[in-house]
Amino acid sequence: MNTPRPNHRFFIVTSLTAAGIALATLYLAPLSTDDVSGKHGSTTKEKQPAYWVAPMDPNYRRDKPGKSPMGMDLVPVYNENGPQNSAGAGAIWISPEGVNNLGVRTAIAALRSLQPPSLPWATCSMTRTN
């Protein structure tokens, strides 16, 4: 008796496609819903900018967003009580993680005379032969 054989190639292609869709769904789906609800929840207080400043001219300040005289978007500046604002206006503060990633090395400043390194001296002469 002739019984119809299932097409193995169709079965393999269908199985691989289903497995690929399942893996893509698992990879692209968030692992927990806590991360998603925390970002968009109304319990977090959004920071309000203190003023807006031009990126190329820190003296150009405005109370609302807009364009700088150079045509660039104004950058918001926030009032924060943190180590970055304790040094005053115009100070640069880098987080400890950033310092570590940059490989910054610090040393105690010392007053000493600078002496050039001693270089060996040599003389070269050329002789011309005909």
Describe the structure.
- With 130 residues, the chain is an alpha+beta fold.
- It is 28% helix and 8% strand.
- It contains 3 helices and 3 strands.
- It has helices at 8-28, 33-40, 96-102, and strands spanning 49-53, 61-62, 75-78.
- Strands 2-1-3 form a 3-stranded antiparallel sheet, with no helix packed on it.
- A hairpin with a 7-residue loop joins β1 and β2.
- The protein is flat and about 95 Å long.
Question: Spatial order of the strands in the main sheet?
Answer: 2-1-3
Q: Which runs of at least 5 residues are low in confidence (pLDDT < 50)?
A: none
Radius of gyration: 33 Å
Strands, total number: 3
User: What pattern of helices and strands is seen along the backbone?
Assistant: HHEEEH
Structural class, from secondary structure content?
alpha+beta
Largest sheet: 3 strands, antiparallel
Strand residue content = 5-15%
Q: What is the straight-line distance between the termini?
A: 105 Å
Global outline = flat
Mean pLDDT: 76
Helix content: 25-40%
Number of helices: 3
Provide a brief overview of the structure:
The protein is α+β, with helices and mostly antiparallel strands and 130 residues long. The protein has helices spanning 8-28, 33-40, 96-102, and strands spanning 49-53, 61-62, 75-78.
